[in-house]
Amino acid sequence: MAGKNGYAGTVLEVNLTDCSMRKIQYGEDLLRKYLGGTALGAKILYDSVPRDIDFDDSTNIVFIGTGPLTGTSIGGSGSISIVTKGALTGGATSCQANGLFGAYMKFSGFDGIILTGKAPSWQYLVLKDGMPELRDASELIGLDTYMVTDKLREVHEAKNRSASVLSIGPAGEHMVRWAGTFVDHGHSASHNGTGAV
Fold first, then answer.
1. What is the share, in percent, of the chain residues with pLDDT greater than 90?
2. How many Cβ atoms are within 10 Å of 69's Cβ, its own excluded?
3. How far apart are CA 133 and CA 142, in angstroms?
4. What does the pLDDT look like over 107-159, one tens digit per residue?
5. Cβ-Cβ contacts under 8 Å for 178 (sequence gap 6 or more)
6. Is residue 49 very low, low, confident or very high in pLDDT (cuts 50, 70, 90)?
7. Three-state secondary structure call for residue 154
8. Which helix (H) or strand (E) is 47 found in, with range?
9. Are 48 and 147 in contact (CB under 8 A)?
10. β-pairing verdict for 181-183 and 187-189
């Protein structure tokens, strides 16, 4: 849940290579300086990713972030920012998507998620009540993003708006350089091939 001044103060780092996770605490001063998911994601990207790598290098990251208004009753405040070194141009990129994913991430106690490394097999991340867990995603391979959303809601017994899903589809699976990332049914964060990363 959001703490003081709209921030939870915690970012979840998930290392997909070894399936380890850690919670990183960020002070209010840093969060205020880099207001919102895009700016904080850009700082993390520039501090941790070498300039000369390709988008599919294991040292690239994907940052999924929220802002201080995320999860409030203000319209459109559930949006997320995705920051990474993009697949299409190889440059730093950010894009946004609406939907409920950002609000639910904040309600789970996280201002953002940093994905690092490369998974040895297809996995998905579940955030429930502040407890992150990686699960096998082999049943989701080949499904479009609408089907992934419906399947995960069924598996986790979640009614329409009681859970939110961030996913890629077959284009992302095949690393098509303009593949998008999608929230629920049709909210797209598709700039510079974030779904391929």
1. 80
2. 17
3. 22
4. 999 999 999 999 999 999 999 988 999 999 999 999 999 999 999 999 999 98
5. 87, 88, 171, 190, 193, 196
6. very high
7. helix
8. helix 36-48
9. no
10. antiparallel
- At 62-93, the pLDDT tens digits run 999 999 999 888 887 889 999 999 999 999 99
The span from the CA of 139 to the CA of 13, in Å, is 25
SS3 string of the chain?
CCCHHHCCCEEEEEECCCCEEEEEECCHHHHHHCCHHHHHHHHHHHHHCCCCCCCCCCCCCEEEECCCCCCCCCCCCCCEEEEEECCCCCCEEEEEECCCHHHHHHHCCCCEEEEECCCCCCEEEEEECCEEEEEECHHHCCCCHHHHHHHHHHHCCCCCCCCCCEECCHHHHCCCCCCCEEECCCEEECHHHHHHC
Checking if the pLDDT of 3 tops 70, the result is: no
pTM (global) more than 0.90: yes
Domain ranges (residues) in the chain: 4-196
4-196 maps to CATH 3.60.9.10: yes
